[in-house]
Amino acid sequence: MTEPHSQSVSEAQHEAEVLARALPHMQRYDDAIVVVKYGGHAMGSEDVARTFASDIVLMEQSGINPVVVHGGGPQIGAMLSKLGIKSEFAAGLRITDKATVEIVEMVLAGSINKQIVGFINEAGGKAIGLCGKDGNMVRARKANRVMVSSGGDDAQEVDLGFVGEPDTVDTTVLDQILGRELIPVLAPVAAAVDGGTYNVNADTFAGAIAGALGAKRFLLLTDVPGVLDKNKQLIPRLTIAEAHALIADGTISGGMIPKVETCIYALEKGVEGVVILDGKVPHAVLLELLTDHGAGTLITR
Ligand SMILES: Nc1ncnc2c1ncn2[C@@H]1O[C@H](COP(=O)(O)OP(=O)(O)O)[C@@H](O)[C@H]1O
Ligand SMILES: CC(=O)N[C@@H](CCC(=O)OP(=O)(O)O)C(=O)O
């Protein structure tokens, strides 16, 4: 046998061993619902988005029921600036006036949603793009005003406009879709309880969906390796109590606060485990679900 041939046999053997090691993980998640929040920063390049889409199809083919909830903050920002509409954030949430909510709906429920649906379908899946309005899935109430400090002592109360908090989640449509080889892809736009449209933070929307579906795992794909400690080192595991302590001492700040709070909400609603991980790492979801070492920060009760 020549050297190159023996090498390729051993490589193939290695690949077979990797596949075999995935079996117990596949069995653990057989028929389980896994909600994956795909953040706007994690979308990165088209190559990364296509790899993500094929991983979602592989999950579905392995007997897992994936539910994708996507964000698109940077993409909304780009469209608003193209149109000359100024946009500001308060407490990590976009202050959303009437003109902005129309663009948010257009970008999230329109272009981004259909792009992800397209990539999943090109990878051999059958994705269905929906937003919270479809089938009355998520109804939202107006978000509370938030306190924003302007540097000095004088904190100001800010009205976020058309920003909503999930009020009720009706899973009828998702119950019809899941378990039938279909992959729901959800945009975080919701109907207002009193009519109209609300812009909902994608993490919050995904947490509400994961909680209502009683998902086994809730994965949040972002642009950092997970929750980092004060020395910027990855914290592989956290309990709810430890997460609260890290928020209180300032280790967790900015956009990571609503993310971790959403994780805590989902865990309290019965989700077994929540993982925050880097969506820009190729095959991040497969690494987490189907390998022994997992990825990111796992938060459990
Ligand atoms: N302890 C921490 N560990 C990791 N990231 C943190 C931490 N504290 C604050 N952050 C910030 O949170 C950001 C992630 O939140 P966000 O930008 O809202 O993500 P996404 O757009 O994916 O929803 C990180 O890029 C980082 O700047
Ligand atoms: C109220 C609010 O802030 N909504 C977000 C919705 C999109 C989102 O959350 O996208 P990421 O996950 O990519 O950040 C926004 O307008 O940007």
In terms of topology, how is this protein built?
Blueprint: H1 3-21, H2 23-28, E1 33-38, H3 40-43, H4 46-61, E2 65-70, H5 73-82, E3 89-90, E4 93-94, H6 98-122, E5 127-131, E6 138-142, E7 146-149, E8 155-158, E9 164-169, H7 172-177, E10 183-187, E11 189-192, E12 197-199, H8 202-213, E13 217-222, E14 237-239, H9 240-248, H10 256-268, E15 273-278, H11 284-290, E16 297-300
Parallel strand pairs: 1-2, 1-13, 2-10, 5-10, 6-11, 13-15, 14-16
Antiparallel strand pairs: 3-4, 6-9, 7-8, 11-12, 15-16
Helix pairs in contact: 4-6, 5-6, 8-10
This protein binds adenosine-5'-diphosphate and N-acetyl-L-glutamyl 5-phosphate.
N-acetyl-L-glutamyl 5-phosphate (X2W) binds at residues 39-40, 71-73, 76, 93-94, 104, 163, 188, 199, 201-202.
Could you walk me through the main structural features you see in this protein, from its secondary elements to its overall organization?
- With 301 residues, the chain is α/β, with parallel strands linked by helices.
- The chain has a single domain (30-300), classed as Carbamate kinase (3-Layer(aba) Sandwich), CATH 3.40.1160.
- It is 42% helix and 24% strand.
- The protein contains eleven helices and 16 strands.
- An eight-stranded mixed sheet has the order 5-10-2-1-13-15-16-14, with helices on both faces. Strands 9-6-11-12 form a four-stranded mixed sheet.
- Strand 11 and strand 12 form a beta hairpin.
- Helix 4 crosses helix 6 (98-122), helix 5 packs across helix 6 (98-122) and helix 8 (202-213) runs parallel beside helix 10.
- The longest helix has 25 residues, at 98-122.
- The relative contact order is 0.15.
- Adenosine-5'-diphosphate binds at residues 39-42, 71, 73, 203, 222-224, 227-228, 251-256, 259.
- Adenosine-5'-diphosphate (ADP) binds next to helix 3 and helix 10.
